[in-house]
Amino acid sequence: MIFLLLVQLAVLSPLKAAAQLTRAPQSRAAATPQDTVTTDSLRLTPQGDIETTIKYSARDSIQLEADSKVVHLYGDAKINYGTMKLDAAYIRIDYETNTLTATSLPDSSGKDIGVPLFADGAESYSAKRIVYNFKTKRGRIAEVVTQQGEGFIHSEIVKKNEHNEIFGFHNKYTTCNLAHPHFYISAGKIKAIPKDKVMSGPFNLVIGDIPTPLGFLFGLFPTPKNNRSSGVIVPSFGESSARGFYLMNGGYYLALNDYIGTTLTGDIYSLGGYNLRMSNDYRKRYSYQGNLSVDYTYFKNDEADVEQSRATNDLRAQLPPTMRSWGVRWNHNPVQKPGKGRFTANVNIQSDPLHNRISGNSTVSDRLAASFNSSITYQKNIQNSPFNYTVKLRQSQQANGTMNFVLPDISFGMTQVSLYEMLTNNVPTGNWYENFTLGYSLTAANEMSNIIPGSRSLFNGLPVVGANTENDTISFGDVRRLWENGRRSATHNFQIGLGNYKVLKFFNLSPSVSYSERWLDRKFSFAYNPDLNALEVDTAKFGRVYEYSAGASLSTTIYGTVQVRGKRVEAIRHLIRPSISYSYRPDFGDPFYGFYQTLYVGDDVNGRPIYRPFSRFESGAPGTGLTSALSFGLSNNLEMKVKAKGDTTGKQFEKVSLIDNFSINGSYNFAAEAFKLSNISMSLNTRILKVINLNANALFNPYQTDSAGAFVDRYLLSGPGFKPARLINAGLNLTASLNPQSRQNNTTSQSTVPELGQNPNVFEPDYIDFKIPWSLNIGYTLNFNRGTGAQPNSINNKADLNGDVSITDKWKIGYSAYYDLVAQQISSAQLNIHRDLHCWDMSISWIPFGYSRGYNITINARSALLRDLRLTKRSSATGINYR
């Protein structure tokens, strides 16, 4: 700390040290000239109150006046005592008055040199003159600049007492580190308690040496040792057309300890309504970190504003006139440690689906989301074994009030292991049957919902005798109905690997077999009641379904190289990876399996009977239809071998990719009654000029259509003309990032101190890097979907642009815009202007249109200590705070 300075120079404890000093051998006679250019030094051994050896020296001379008990140190005078050091052009020690004086001296040109510099450990400060009484431990310092935490105190006179507390007169308190600060708080009197706080009497703010009327009767600036302390959070003031005047984000921060910090904030509006929030950030180094927050909202929607919102189809029209709601959020993330379990939580629970629309604790994406989810998970890999397990609790909430729970969701798995090693415990010898592997996974879940689905949504639209045809809602207080409405299931999956084999030297053959089985707590049996045109359903308490399939794949790689040997291009290489695979899966709709029940459900208009299949399981029954399909794929890679730039030997080359991947995929189902050939998909991705990323995809249908636009089972290739397939949909995405250099990440050492949650305000950027002179990101997206029947084709054609440019090393302009090329209008745009004012920041953000339209102008002190010293002017279209 600053004034720890004068310190324990008390080590020269009064007269005992003086007597010792008097008896010490003199390296210079008392009459030694002051300008002698040599180095003298004396050492005092510990005695009395002195705890360790005192070393002091002077470049010119040391003059002892034994009679008056005064020591003079001239020229680069130094005193060292433990971790404390004092340097000055001149130091005078007077043992008669128990005072120590350190000053600078003028050189031949009249300029002061050797300004007293005090250091104790990592702390240091300088002053023009220091007077210190090492008996009373009081001092007086003239024209000193001291640092207290992030702040600097410029004082004409400073006094220090025995408790290391300092008292300043005619002071300037600032966070600007210049000798002549851009701004400061001018106060006649200031008291500083090191590593605790700085207090002042009446003060006013001075900017650019111009006094302002801004001030108060007293000031309090905390400077804790760990840079964290409890304190008041000053609210920001503003006006909204919908809510009137408001005070926002005012409250109190409570630093409980080095691991936990709590923020209590709120908003209040002149037209009614308020928000209350509590946020707890916690962190334990090398273990975990997280945040738990709770907020309560009373929302009052002005009726005139609601009517206007309905007329303009604004989002506020969906909100009620008044509303009370609450929300809880919890995020917990551990540090991954080998062999240890991992507990994570991501909880978002709201008392009302509309809570996110009005809460001051949610972001723009939260307010526009149709649903939100919660999960709590514990997972662990069992060391020295192939086993792992996961236990999860899940919850989801829809905007219509539907709540779904999975309590719990349990998974147990075994990674692929060699059957030969597992059964024989022998080392493989290379035989083909030693390649067989087995993997297993189990998933068990207890699913519950507050919605009882209507019978019409379950059984092909037919009602059930004695059951509700429409959905019904269960109160959360009715635990019995919630449990009865729940579904319990367990799924077993077996992955059987049959190895990889070389065929004809160049082909890789990979056969496979899979089997899965699911246990359910409900199985239905049906009977059709023709009088009521409804189903009679009998429910069993247990059901079992299973399915299996088999297949094999064959692949190879083909290389082709063309030697060009041109000026730059040496060769072009084409890499082709063709593959075919066959899969077989039986028809699980066959009565042999008993998974479906076919019923007579009446006659058609011609008197012919109608039969419909009904799944005997509410969920989990395998699909119907026999699959005997041959799939094919072809991927391509094209690259050049070119001479390296700047190479004069002609022996250095580099690879340039022309096409990263171009693939074609499809399948042919031999067992299908019609449309045996599937759609053909194509995709392409590459990088152009090392700057532009290109991704394209397309889907083609190989069948003809009738006059109504419906597909018929006849290939386009069958005529007329040569047309192999019809384009169904296509997409193209181009992105380019034109930056002179990569943005540098700000990395800091890990700390136990929890950081306050960031404010995701759409107007305020988190970090501005003035080192990057400019950046430009360009994107283009095109999507095409062919219409069917009377539906027209649809095209989505958009371009986006964002980046920033530093006009000077202090000015930066950021921009972003999205342009709809079909509608020929800008769909969204934002402009940001930033000014680095050394110890201040200025930001101007403007969104000219859209739901988030508005502007924000902020000028604030950069230091976190004076973060509430800001001037803000903002406006938003809705009046709902976007944080």
Automatic annotation (TrEMBL):
| Superkingdom of this protein's organism | Bacteria
Entry keyword set: Signal
Q: Name one Pfam family in it.
A: LptD_2
Q: Which residues form the LPS-assembly protein LptD central domain?
A: 198-703
- InterPro entries documented for this protein: LptD (IPR050218), LptD_2 (IPR045659)
Question: A single GO CC term, please?
Answer: cell outer membrane
The signal peptide stretch is 1-19
This chain belongs to the protein called LPS-assembly protein LptD
**Whose protein is this, by species?**
Pontibacter burrus
